[in-house]
Amino acid sequence: MTETAIEVENLSFGYGKTPILEQVQVAFPANRFSVLLGRNGSGKSTLFNIMAGLQKYRHGSVKLMGKERCKLSFSDCARVLGFLPQFHKSVFPFHVKDVVLTGRAAFSAFSPRKSDMEKVGQSLEELGISHLADRPYTELSGGEQQLVMIARVLVQDPKIILLDEPTNHLDVYYQTYVLEKLKKLTENDLTVIAIMHDPNMAFLYADHCYFMKDRTVVTPTTGFDFHASDFLEYVYDVRFTTVLVNNKLMVVPDRKTDNRIQVKP
Amino acid sequence: MRKVMTGFLIYGLPIPLLLYSLTVGPSQGLVFADYWEWGREALSGNIHESSTKVYMLNNIIGNVRLPRVLLTFIIGAGLASSGGALQGIFRNPLVDPYVLGISSGSAFGAALAIAFPLLHINVMAFVLGVASVIMTYSFAFSNNKSSIVAVILSGMIVSGIFTASLTVVQYMSDPYKLQAIVQWTMGNLHHASWDKLNTAALPVGIGIVGMYLMRWRLNLLALGEQEAKAVGVNPTADKATLVALATLTTSTSVAAAGVISMYGLFIPHLTRMMVGPDNRKAMPANIFFGGSFLVIIDNFSRSLMDFEIPIGIFTMLLGAPFFLFLMKKNKINWV
User: Which positions, given as ranges, span the membrane (chain B) (predicted)?
Assistant: First the structure.
């Protein structure tokens, strides 16, 4: 029914003798919003860097739309895949539209074309941030900066976008805003794959959730239902209580001791 | 209105300024009428039959002032655009063209050539300038990677080594040679000649045109390495090209005119205040305004007093306070 956007098979990777990924096996379906969850240091970012081509791999295979990742050139890859790295800080106060315009650099060598400028306008509009076009990027709030960086990935016209913690450091308003927009992008033939830390936000918006534990992607043996708390405990090493809200699974971590917050009179 | 003003400062200023600068100099007793007559005679092409005064003036303008003004302009343009490019590549507004050790390497090379006449001064200055950049990079690389901090740190250490070596050469030189070495390190545009201009013009020209063509790529590099890769560009090749162009430009200008310190640091800041950080506009501004401003400084340095103040020193004395004033006025605050 659905094709596969990225297929990872038997991928192993390590820095020196430290293994980071071991025998990773996962397939992300096309035109869906998939979320990758897991504890810090479980290998999520490394897996993303390899899928995005920032890191080379030797063992295993990574296929983008059926083509082996390491055989694609930088610019061929840019036509298929856009990547939003985790941390971003600009030193120079570039205007938002100039920041977004650099997303076209793989296609226009020395100076941007007029069509590139139009694409910038479109993607700013798509994300509802046209009013920021002439503001200096460095003066924006964290949420606005994140939207600008997403717009920068969109001007590439990719088929797949990878986002490393797109909702990090954002308030609840921007978290839902960003996730709504990402979800909406999958309706326009785009595959969105994101790393997230909040399981509840993932359950609310994602079509598919994937979990990483001990350097590999794990899937629950049974279906993802009320027994999910056992599986989540295995992934996060924390006990959870699960509830259903509007037919969506929500989890709340259990507290280990019951020391209630004391409010002094 | 502001836009027109900055447009004029950048693109309108150079030609009239260069023409005016031909009339600036220590030669006493020349008045406007002399220049007028020289201009008329020069245009009609019968300078050789003119009066001795006009003939002398022709010599002063053609063989002394013209090469000097042109050399000053291309060196100013070269240093400013190299500074702008390197600040973008290293994503650091504190960087100047000498950050990779070029200036101290070249100064050491020139000192060697003055103290022990082995080779031509300019050649030695150029060779050691390039050598210092290669040293800086080879020390900064480990596992085929180099962080920005490692490059800048390595550049400072390489600079330190060459500065110390320069001091050793100075210590061992006799007073006459010592004076020549010290003069060279302070910048020496007063030795400008057609010869020097001819040797410097091609490498500086290649460097400037190259950096101008890469101006939009520079925006991408200035956003960061990960961000470039994220949109499908391998920044390593772009970076290497720009560093090579900046090195070519800077070491050529150091070889031709000595060390003009801080110029490549503050001009990119001035142009950023004028046209904003977008390198598509800032790069041409660096080239034209960078050229003009050094010509202005040089005009002061050769007309303000009876003796000539070395351009390297005068740049600091005049340019630095001007920059500090603008920095305060525009409330520049880097995060």
Answer: 66-86, 98-117, 123-141, 148-169, 242-270, 307-327
